[in-house]
Structure prediction request, 253 residues.
Amino acid sequence: MSDYVRVTGVKRENYDTMTVSFRWNAKAVPGQFIMVRTRDSEEIPMSLSGVGETKSITVKNIGPSTAKLHELKEGDVIGIRGPYGNGYTLDPDKKYLVVAGGVGTASVMPAAEITGSDLIIGARTDKDVILLDRAKEYTDNVWVSTDDGSMGFHGNAVQLMREKLAQVRYGCVIACGPPIMLKFLFLACQELNVECQLSLERHMKCGAGVCGCCVIDGLRVCKDGPVFTGEQVSKMEEFGKVRRDECGRIIRK
Ligand SMILES: Cc1cc2nc3c(=O)[nH]c(=O)nc-3n(C[C@H](O)[C@H](O)[C@H](O)COP(=O)(O)OP(=O)(O)OC[C@H]3O[C@@H](n4cnc5c(N)ncnc54)[C@H](O)[C@@H]3O)c2cc1C
Ligand code: FES
Prediction:
């Protein structure tokens, strides 16, 4: 059943992404997500980019439902269910390197802030970078990579991660981003023998472990994940090879 909450703020992050804030007293941990809908949109999964009493989602406009979320104004009402999923495992004695790709930055930002971790934000161009101001509020160790070199390191987030791992000994890498980034990040962590936790994305319908739409190698991304350890990922035959469409059918890459 949905809770109905009022939007307390909207903030444009860049040309296609905005953050929507709302007060909701449910307990949530970094890495969890909600199912969200407006009066006239489908219900879709969104990571919580803020997990305090005031919570937030950071939405990239890519289709009909995310476009409706982009129309929201302060005072509007949204329906939400959750929070769902397991979230990141955060050990206060461990030094984390957090690696974010694109709108995946929304998922990892609360974990990065709470642990005060070093952070890499990867994007296609300087116009696609999000949440950099927020990261700069808690750390000086935030580095940007852009594919076209328009800001920060010229290259992708995994190449920059390799440089940082060669300089500093991190206990674990936490990451969320596009499937191709996660695939190469996972391979690099295996090669360099560094622990990792990856937040995976799949089409979701129920969000609560019932419909089977989000299954990867027998694990439900919405309930057993979305965060999986490197060890779990190493046993997934589907990881980086196939994905499922909105009906749960396998699409080979
Ligand atoms: C656990 C989880 C957390 C997420 N967190 C965020 C977030 O913090 N911010 C954010 O902007 N988005 C997030 N997403 C993705 C978001 O749910 C989709 O962008 C949204 O459902 C698209 O709906 P739409 O109607 O706007 O576009 P659609 O018309 O449904 O999709 C537009 C295009 O994107 C593809 N697409 C849509 N959803 C997915 C998906 N889950 N995986 C792969 N391809 C997809 C479609 O195939 C289509 O080509 C998350 C997804 C999951 C599963
Ligand atoms: S979305 Fe239904 S089981 Fe995961």
